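Risk register update: the risk of archive-format incompatibility is retired. Evidence:
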Amino acid sequence: MQLQTVPSFFCGVNPKPLFTAPPRTHQYRISSSPASPIRSLLSAEKEADSMAAKWAQKTVVIPPHRRGCHLVTSKILREIEQDLSGFKCGLAHLFLQHTSASLTINENYDSDVQDDTETFLNKIVPEGRSAPWKHTLEGPDDMPAHIKSSMFGCALTIPITDGQLNMGTWQGIWLCEHRDHATPRKIVITLNGI
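Archived output:
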């Protein structure tokens, strides 16, 4: 077994040894003795392999939606379920590649929450010719869309547990469309874990 020391600046803690599996270039003859050191070494190597971090990434395209907040959890899960099922523990990172829409986690049951959220956003971010915005190249909803996107953000991180997104009972992933004339929206989903 080889030990590797983490530099002392790592996470601000004292160095800790990490297990690293032996090179796979060796061939071992396993004795029939259950206490065989070679059997133990192979078992440790197999365990290390099963605990090795893995990654998966996919870009999901959400078709255009009318302006407002939309529950997209099931669409996202359909797109990533095969990769997601391979993770025992990890994180899912969702990144929206747009500046006039946003992602958030919110109520997944009562659609009135989506409507009320849109009403709230429209109340606090003025729109139209009387609004004070300079940036109106793409219409009067352009700058308000950028502000709303910054308010909710374009990224989410969700824990993965036993091949599933580990969200609360009433939580769902929302795509919030802030433009009157929407386009397809791309979400890059990166999975990392064991």
